[in-house]
Amino acid sequence: MLLIKRKIIDFIKEKNIIKKINYNKFVFNFLFGLKSQFKQFKININTNCLVLSQYPGAETKGLGGLIAQYPKNFEVLCFTNGSSLLCEFDSAKSANIKKQQFSEVMKSTRIKGYKIFDIDDKTLKNHYSTFKKIDISEADYIFVPNVYDNNIDTIALLKHFKEILKEKEHKEDLKIVMFESDFPLCTLDYYVNISTIINTKKRMLETYYPSEKFPNLVSKTLGINAFRSIQHNCDFCEVFMAFSVDEFMKIPLI
What we know:
Layout: H1 2-15, H2 17-33, E1 39-40, E2 49-53, H3 58-69, E3 74-78, H4 91-109, E4 113-116, H5 128-131, E5 141-145, H6 152-167, E6 175-179, E7 190-193, H7 198-208, H8 217-228, E8 237-244, H9 245-249
Parallel strand pairs: 1-7, 2-3, 2-5, 3-4, 5-6
Antiparallel strand pairs: 6-8, 7-8
Helix pairs in contact: 3-7
C-alpha cells in the first residue's frame, strides 16, 4: 500500500497536477473577486481606443459593433496574418486572402487606423521585437482578447503586451478591456447595445466568413450577441471585462 501511495505522489509531481489545480483556482478567484460594474460602455469624441487582435476577424467577432459605431475613435492592430485559417489553401495564399479581408473590413468601416503584421499564425511568441514597436502612449482604452481563449497567439499577445506595459509610456488611467472572440468571458463589467448596427456587424463578419465556406458561423456569432442582450433592453449587445493596468498585470498567464 505504501508503494502504491508513493507511486501516486510521484505521478502527481511528474504531471504537475497540483500546480495546474492551484493555477485554475487562483484565476477563478481573481476574476470573480473583482467588483463587477456591468454598465453601458460609452466613449466620447476624444476617446482613443486601440484594439490588439490575435488574428484577422477576432476583432470583428468581439467588438465589430462597437468599432462600427465609433470608427474614428479606433485603431486596430492585427498581429498574425491568418496563414492557417483557410485549410484548403497553403499558408501563403491563406495569409494573402485573410490580409485582404482584414483591409476590406477596416476600409468599409472607415476606421481611423489599422495595420496587419505579416507574422505567421502560431509564431507570435517569437516576434516581440515587432510587437514592442507599437505606440500605446495616447490610448485611453486598449482592447485585448480574452485570457481564456484557447489560442497560442492569444497567450503570446498578452505576454508581449504585459512587457510593453512595463517598458513603454502609457496614460495613468489607461484601461485594459478584454473582448470575446473564441471563448466567452466568465464575468462582465460593460456592455454595448449594438442593435441599431447589427447588420453592419453581420456584413463585416460575412467578409471573413462567407456562408458557403463557413455555414452558420455568422449567425452563431450574432447569436452570442443576442444571448448577451437578455439582461438589457435591447436585441444585441457586446460585452467586455475591464482592468486597470495594475489589475491586468496580476492576471496569471499559462
